[in-house]
Amino acid sequence: MNTYTSLEALLHDAFWADEDTPELHWIENLLEEPALEIGCGSGRLLLPLLQKGCRIEGLDNSEDMLALCRQSASDCGLEPVLHHGDMSRFAPGKTYASLFVPAFTFQLAEDPAATLAHFQKLLQPAGLLYLTVFIPMAEIHRELPENEWYLDHETSLPDGRRASVHTRHQIDRKARILRREHHYSLTDPTGTQEHFSEQTVRWFTPRQLQRLLTDAGFSVENAVADFDEELPVDEDSQILTLVARSFVESVE
Q1: Domain containing 196: what range?
Q2: With contact defined as beta carbons under 8 Å apart, do 112 and 213 qualify?
Q3: Among 74, 141, 149, 161, which lies 20 to 30 A Cα-Cα from 211?
Q4: Is residue 150 a contact partner of residue 118, using CB atoms and an 8 Å limit?
């Protein structure tokens, strides 16, 4: 299981914070309580929902990300219920009315089918499941060089430090597996900190994802492309959001 640590956790929000905005609106409208966000990270979605009074807990497999979440929560006067664990094996001893798996977290699961089956154990009967996944179009269509380092993101932090991440990838189009290496750098006048990480991402066609959900005991209620209800979900969609509901009884 992929885990964010060190600079990867620290710089994640600096590089990708703006990408959460569409999902916050969707989750707020769909949320059924009590809820669990799987892959809550530093709390970029979780904390705004708690500020709105939502009963939602967070799960992440990175202690570093959870530490950032606790610090941000403290700054906001919040005390979130946070769990450290793997989404494929997490056993809280209770069930939830809704599960939210945003920001492509599901694609980090080593066994997607088994992970969806485990989600059933976390849900109450007729519980709601929200999933967002992406299709790595740039890598698929060779718009990014394979097996070569390229600048992925760079930004300046509020304190003046310069942050960057370079990425190198390999892609297996037949198996639909993308393997990435990341090189994070954080530079200030005293020098540069560096961190290397690896990530394995699986992607799915719309039909394949719906079949996975059905086989796991879910009924798909809605499917949206690129966070736009007007766009049809088809093979050209880059971001898929699916809302499904359990049609089997949860297993204790």
Answers
A1: 137-201
A2: no
A3: 141
A4: no
DSSP 8-state symbol, 252? -
CA 185 to chain centroid, in Å, comes to 23
Instruction: Identify whether the C-beta of residue 135 lies closer than 8 Å to the C-beta of residue 106.
Output: no
16/179 Cα distance (integer angstroms)? 19
252, part of any domain:
no
57-82 per-position pLDDT tens digit: 999 999 999 999 999 999 999 999 99
What whole-number distance in Å separates Cα of residue 162 and Cα of residue 154? Answer: 8
How do residues 169-210 score in pLDDT, each as one tens digit?
A: 999 999 999 999 999 999 999 999 999 999 999 999 999 999
Q: Are the CB atoms for 62 and 5 separated by under 8 Å?
A: yes
Phi and psi for 219 in degrees, rounded to 5? -110, 120
In terms of C-beta density within 10 A (0-12 exposed, 13-18 middle, 19 or more buried), how is residue 103 classed?
A: buried
Residue 251 lies in a domain: no
CATH number of the CATH domain containing 167: 2.20.130
Regarding whether 213 and 188 lie in a shared domain, the answer is no
Mean pLDDT computed over every residue of the chain: 92
- Residue 54 placed within a domain: yes
**Separation CA 133–CA 47 (nearest Å):** 22
Q: What is the DSSP letter of 39?
A: T
